[in-house]
Specification:
By secondary structure, the chain is α+β, with helices and mostly antiparallel strands. The protein is built from 8 helices and 14 strands. It has a single domain, classed as Endonuclease/exonuclease/phosphatase (Deoxyribonuclease I, Chain A). The strands form 3 sheets. Strands 3-4-2-1-14-13 form a 6-stranded mixed β-sheet. Strands 5-6-7-8-12-9 form a 6-stranded mixed β-sheet. The chain starts with a strand and ends with a strand. It binds one DNA strand through loops.
DNA sequence: ATGGTTGTAGGACAA
């Protein structure tokens, strides 16, 4: 079984201890991080080396954004995409070398959050988010149709059950119709399968993010499912599990996102 | 309806 996790960590330097706690507990073979908020040079490598993750790929920048993939298995490099014409570090593609000698294309993405106003003509950040999703839909995972995973912080909650209140979030960035349509086009045009909803029924409420701005995040429970793991058609049938590790949101000085872990029969 | 918090950086901005 190959296990892969994704987690928007909201500063990997500040939360290296939390990441270690998660790795010791869940022990995934590969962890994809978003919002590392540091450059490649400033990335804390030692905590991962200590726990048996010697393969580390990083796309970073000072202060904001940034993605990294850490792995027990060797990683080859795949071309890095911008998807929105900016230099922001929001994508990292790796070729995972599997024990049988084959490779798995693993694309770790951090979709722009999109600001507060859901109007591309009034809000450049929302315009950038829609452009990113449009470019992502047009992009083909450069793996010759082989097995591929697309995962990360997509910053869109597509289903009604992916938010605490569908009605109250219809005009809130992350759950507007135009974003849901754009993300759905990415999934259908790319032939991707939402692995998490294969194991947790779409009828069931499911969140991976809870705002820092609630007095009591757990009592309010106003969450959204922003973090996703998708598989290519050839790989989807090999998925065996999907788990959301909600308890990490209750850890000391947590990220506002929690990890999502999938298991694949590879 | 509004404001609520966190991180990076060392003020405003992103989320």
């Amino acid at each position: 079984m190959l296990t892969i996790a994704t987690w928007n960590i909201n500063s990997v330097r500040l939360r290296a201890g939390l990441v270690q706690r998660f790795l010791k507990q869940a022990g995934p073979d590969i962890l994809c991080l978003q919002e590392i908020k540091c450059t490649e040079e400033a990335f804390p490598r030692e905590p991962f080396l200590e726990l048996g993750y010697p393969h580390i790929a990083i796309s970073g920048q000072p202060g904001y954004h940034g993605v990294a993939t850490v792995s027990r298995l060797p990683l080859g490099a795949l071309p890095r995409e911008s998807f929105c014409g900016t230099a922001e570090a929001r994508h990292l593609g790796c070729a995972v070398m599997l024990p049988d000698g084959s490779t798995l294309a693993l694309h770790n993405i951090y979709v722009p959050a999109g600001g507060d106003i859901p109007d591309p003509s009034a809000n450049p950040k929302f315009k950038q988010k829609l452009a990113y999703l449009k470019a992502l839909a047009a992009w083909q995972a450069d793996n010759g149709g082989g097995p591929a995973i697309l995962l990360g912080d997509f910053n869109v909650a597509p289903l009604e059950t992916d938010v605490w209140s569908h009605k109250q979030l219809l005009n809130v960035v992350s759950h507007t119709a135009v974003e849901v349509e754009a993300l759905t086009k990415v999934r259908t045009d790319g032939g991707w399968t939402d692995l998490v909803r294969r194991f947790i029924p779409p009828e069931k409420k499911l969140y991976t993010w809870w705002s820092y701005r609630a007095r009591d995040w757990q009592a309010a429970n106003r969450g959204r499912r922003l973090d996703h793991v998708w598989a290519s058609a050839s790989l989807a049938g090999r998925a065996r599990s999907a788990t959301v590790l909600k308890e990490t949101r209750g850890w000391d000085r947590p990220s506002d996102h929690v990890p999502v872990v999938v298991g694949l029969d590879l």
